Amino acid sequence: MHQVERAIFDLRRGLPVILxxxxxxxxxxxxxxxxxxxxxxxxxTAGEAPGLVLSRHRLALLGxxxxxxxxxxxxxxxxxxxxxxxxxxxxxxxxxVSQDIVSASRADHAALTLMRRALLIPAALTARxxxxxxxxxxxxxxxxxxxSVTVSDAERCxxxxxxxxxxxSEAQVPLxxxxxxxxxxxxxxxxxxxHVAIVIGDTAAWQNAVPLRMHxxxxxxxxxxxxxxxxxxxxxxxxxxxxxxxxxxLLYLAQEGRGIGLANKLRAYAMQDVGLxxxxxxxxxxxxxxxxxxxxxxxxxxxxxxxxxxxxTNNPIKIAALTAGGIxxxxxxxxxxxxxxxxxxxxxxxxxxAGHMLDGVLENYERLGGE
Length: 371
Fold this sequence. Notes:
Elements: H1 2-12, E1 17-20, E2 25-30, H2 36-46, E3 51-55, H3 56-61, E4 70-74, H4 82-90, E5 102-103, H5 106-117, E6 123-128, H6 134-142, E7 147-150, H7 151-155, E8 166-172, E9 181-187, E10 194-200, E11 210-216, H8 219-223, H9 231-244, E12 248-253, H10 256-259, H11 262-272, H12 278-284, H13 295-303, E13 308-312, H14 316-324, E14 328-333, H15 344-354, H16 359-367
Parallel strand pairs: 1-7, 11-12, 11-13, 13-14
Antiparallel strand pairs: 1-2, 2-6, 3-4, 3-6, 4-5, 8-9, 9-10, 10-12
């Protein structure tokens, strides 16, 4: 999987990579880094015009409904321009497209899997390598100017990290809400993400079912006290609650913006400012309702020898994910922050559309004169 890890970093740098299987070599270019020069080079290298691969969420915005997760939009000469491609991939209200879409190949689907793993917009140009261009492409691969990975490895780029989390470093870090706290840092094998387990209290005195909070990183809320969410308050309340319960663990997971990354979260915020709710904004960018994966949390708990937990959460998906990973959830405890004028729409969408258990809190806010 080392080639896939290198490919992820190349894609984040804006470089194309080759996806290959038994049928065809495909040149993949992230849409994020596209300019006219890169587009011309892509076509010249592949020897064929590219298509635009998009997720079903983004295609729905273009008036194209599909059953599968991805599809490919053939590009007419008029559409082979950076401005038009960026509109198709990024705009809140892009012009619809009249031409038919075609089914995505395995390589097309794998390309968007790599984009998600690289925390890039799930949109990519894919160009089949023409027969006349194969010798040139092989030379570029041989010279190290172009990286190739197999489609099967790219398809497994999320699952390949399971069980390979590395415990890197640790130290005592007394917190305002829990004086006896130890930070343990874990790193994923591709080096892209690091997660922290905050061990609170004396482990010898813990309950059999360890109090646990799985908290996804939120730079804007956790660090800067953003009013758009309640994440910062939830974080500090969780530390205090775990300390009051005799100690336990808070897993601070590098899954900003429900797993889409900070850059895309800020793009989604901009879309919310023109009227979309938090879930629709993510889907307009091409993402699903929640892109987080909790296998890393299961691996961290295994490293800490924890098999039974009391979970502090309002999210039923977290309960299901731990249970599927072999962790027994004996009890759920609700965890709230303050509801405000600025975060009401965000929390309301989570409750009404994503199933978070917040109805009582929202109803109370409405009775007190909120929206």
